[in-house]
Amino acid sequence: MEHPGGHLGKAKRTDKEHSREQRLHRENAMLKRQVARLRNMLERANLDAERARELRHLVKLQYKEEREATRAAAEAEDKAARRWACRQCDQGRLRMTIITRRNGTFYWRACDSGCGNRTKMQKFHEGVEGDDGGPAERPNDGADSPQ
Ligand SMILES: [Zn+2]
Known about the structure:
This protein is of the alpha+beta class. It has two domains: 1-83; 86-147, no CATH class. The protein has one helix and three strands; from the N terminus they run H-E-E-E. The protein has a three-stranded antiparallel β-sheet, with no helix packed on it.
């Protein structure tokens, strides 16, 4: 035998040590990757939590805005109801009628309780108050206005 077993054994041990080192190196790299992945997940979870917080905040804001809009609309309606309450019968409310004629757009208001209270016809202009307290909308010219 030209190659003694001792030498072979040493070579084998060195290979083993080498492979053990490689294995540890691989494990280490794997653990590093896992840590990086977990860190990534944690970061994403934090982002998700942050996003959830932001969304909750937005929903809250939206809800508040909606409540305020509802209240503002109710207030405007109350105000309009008082503003256009019929002083003649104290029951009805003056409702606006807008008509478009060849010589322009006109409007008047008449009590909806049928007491006969009616304002005189006036020329319509931007800024005329509608039944709801907001600006009245000019009807589409000739589209669906009475003849
Ligand atoms: Zn009336």
